[in-house]
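Researcher: Good morning. I'm working through a list of sequences from a screen, and I'd like to move beyond sequence-only analysis. For each chain I'm collecting a predicted structure so we can compare shapes side by side. This is the next one on the list. No need for commentary yet; just the structure.
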Amino acid sequence: MIDLDILIKYNGYIKDFDKNQVIITECEEPKFYYQIVHGKVKMNNYNQEGKEFIQAIFSDGESFGEPPIFAGFNYPANAIALVQSSILLICKEDFFKLLENESECCFRVLQALSSRLYYKSIMAPEISSNDSEKRILTLLYYIKSQQDNDKELQIDLTRQQIADMTGLRVETVIRSIKEIEHKQQLRIERGKLYI
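Model: Good morning. Structure tokens for this chain:
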């Protein structure tokens, strides 16, 4: 998203996180801007019964956790490395200076935040729906819309992650994906989903 050289110019530094290492804890005060150099991070929280809900999954070049920096509230979710990850951190004061001085970077951050807000707005009605196939397709089509071409896309999510992102049980996701494939709205090859 933001060029690493620019982030380093504003005192950014790279930190490595092990698989399953917590990067941000829910209710923690925001102090840094985070951008993934290499790796994969999920933002999640748990309901009162302890069921995980994955807010989003981020990968190479993407940032995460910005809204609390701007709004001045504590993090509403955790951020956890899904794989060994290298993440660039920059303290929020330096990040604000960067945004003041680098208008193109500011525009990219606004684009990313707007895209996430759009995702939340299309997923919210689906999560309240009982139509599991529609929930899954909404998620998959959104992921596909983030690529710059119309080529078939391999969805790099497990069935469990899809369940955690749509509020469904994994058994329901497995059954629904088979139905969606039967309707030829996606393709399954060697257990991988293509849309």
